[in-house]
Amino acid sequence: MLRFLALMVFAAAPLQAQMRLDTSLPSNRKTVEAFEDLWRRRDDKARRALECDIRPVPPSLGFDLRLWAGYNFSLPLTEFKGQKQARLSAVIRLQPLEPGGKPVYLGRRLTLSRIPEAPSKKLHMSAGGGFALGAGSYRASLLIGDSTGRSCAKSFTLKAKEPRGSVSQLARGEVSDASAGWKGFAAPAAGAEPRRVTVVMNAYPVTRRRHLAALSWRDQSTLMNVLGSLLSRGGYHSARVAAIDLLNRHVVYDEAQFGPGSFEALADALGSVNLATVDYETLAQGPTEHQFLESVVRRVSSEAAPGQIVFITPPTQPPGRAGARNEGVWEGLRRPAVLALLPRPVAEGSVIDVAKAAKGRVFSIYTPSDLASAVERIASGRQ
Fold first, then answer.
1. pTM of the entire structure?
2. Do 89 and 200 have their domain in common?
């Protein structure tokens, strides 16, 4: 039990997204040691088992030209009967096999709240984690446990192949987390005026699915690697990044000086978005989605020089209530741009409406080359 408590140590930090465990930190070293000890004893009959279903996600090319892989898992809520709240930790060890290399550990934590007193056997919770891989073969060892000392485990092999017609952004055998691989802004050239960008990200699922309770790890990684591509290729020298929960009319993240170290906090904010419930009063009385977006524009443009404003939005439905427009919010601002991810079949929704009201340019993004072309056009001012 003491070993399992050590595994839970990293969960004391505010970690929603899956991140690489820096073993230079004492708490992370204890987590890795606990993982290795529990992994060796995973077949021990005395181990308290946690019923779960783990499914690997094979590598596929992301918008940032990195190969993304991961895992999904589900647990029946009957496993937590009688608990008002449950904490889960997931730690995965990725061992490069070809080429060989040192193992990399990644971890995430989840908190289950509002567990029904008598949950149905049909009720499950689902989650997962993702990571980027360089070309090669990897052995993945995943351990999931709860705060009562129960755990489940699975080992599987991942084979990442170089994408046709392009080169992966990671070296062979390299493993990276959701920080999008961006290393920071370059300094402006001597005598050149610094370029700033303000990014407003719509925290909404990128991929279509039946139940939209939260953003999956794939949704989060897609949004963040699109952001990383914009910041790394756009020629900017500083950025403000805001993430919004449009359904609940809430700004979940706002960082005026966004940098490489900001991705973890952004990932946590995206992971905290709850799409399962929407306040009825908000739907009935407002503000409407358009009015909320206009308030966000006023908020981010309140600084002296917000620079180029770029929206990143997944596909959404047209709003039920449009409400009155206030096109004056764009006075004195540059025409915005919208990176519309995987529109079906055309880009629509409140973000598109508000940007078009300001004569903004909407770029439909289906492939990495679409994103690269859009970023180039935005950076050059050819919208």
1. 0.83
2. no
